[in-house]
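STRUCTURE REQUEST FORM
Protein name: Oligopeptide/dipeptide ABC transporter, ATP-binding protein
Source organism: Desulfosporosinus youngiae DSM 17734
Requested output: structure tokens
Priority: standard
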Amino acid sequence: MLLEVKKLRTEFKLKRGTVTAVDDLSFTIDKGEILAIVGESGSGKSVTSLSIMGLLQKPGKIAGGEILFKSQDLNKMSQKELQKIRGNKISMIFQEPMTSLNPVWRIKDQIMENIMTHMKISKKEALTRTIEMLETVGIPSPAERANDYPHQMSGGMRQRVMTAMALACDPELLIADEPTTALDVTIQAQILELLYRMREKFHMAVLLITHDLGVVAEAADRVIVMYCGKIVEEAAVKDLFAQPLHPYTVGLLQSIPQIDDDSDKRLYMIKGMVPNPLNMPPGCNFSDRCDRCMDRCTKEMPELQDINGHKVRCFLYDKAKEGELSAK
Ligand SMILES: Nc1ncnc2c1ncn2[C@@H]1O[C@H](COP(=O)(O)OP(=O)(O)OP(=O)(O)O)[C@@H](O)[C@H]1O
Ligand code: SF4
Ligand SMILES: [Mg+2]
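Status: completed
Returned output:
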């Protein structure tokens, strides 16, 4: 087991009340595995990754749980100890590359700096490695482009530079938070293909955060669906697509445009909106949007149940027996 998150709870204490952005979140990632976390905006995906990386900004705070990386609790480490792991054993690609690239530094200086902080190698070796990494992520004429400043590159190229920087120290875990959202479809596909190749080449694990189920289908082995900070469903990708259980997942899947669908029917949309975190509906968080809401759903919060390795948080499956996945 490479990463084991146990009952993570992350809160933001605001004047108007406490927002629980991530609640009762437990999952694992194995070496070489690609795990996707999917969910609408505000479901707690970025807060999860920032909690793991120890990069939460105030008033954000981990209020409970453990984040075990190779059995060591990252949450109990000092910032100094964490710094040794960040960018080295665990690295992260952020949603908007311009916010994490320094506009006044050349690309090569930023990647070399990162390499030399974490690896005992000479400046010359760091430059060679930088150019190799730029080549690996598919940047043409890498030796010349290494001298560019970030603003001289296109969005797709900058995302590749970020990826090169994240991969430069051979991380064991890469956290990629919406790595393709800002990119057009062709470049999205190239970046996903790149992550896939890097996983094969370096046997690294990837936590892939996205709101796009199409990306999940293409790239991930396993998927977690989050809603209002909680896991509502978790399964192998093929099982989730073959038999989605939670009404929220069913809604998300029905909202994906089908390329081969030539009918002019309108795309399904889950009714309503994600609730205000300071004013959650009582009972199941999804109850005010759920077509299958029952009396009990507005009173109690369902537990996450494991049905033959497919997990779901919904009363429809409360009495599910071994091998019996269909709802009552
Ligand atoms: N700085 C903050 N102050 C207060 N609350 C915050 C802050 N950052 C996040 N939150 C709370 O945490 C929730 C989850 O935020 P998060 O950024 O993890 O969402 P997300 O799933 O990454 O969404 P997106 O798809 O838009 O990136 C938000 O809805 C908000 O209630
Ligand atoms: S517990 Fe009830 S409201 Fe919640 S998703 Fe299941 S059926 Fe819908
Ligand atoms: Mg986010």
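Reviewer notes: DSSP finds eleven helices and twelve strands in the chain. The chain has two domains: 1-79+172-277, 99-170.
Form closed.
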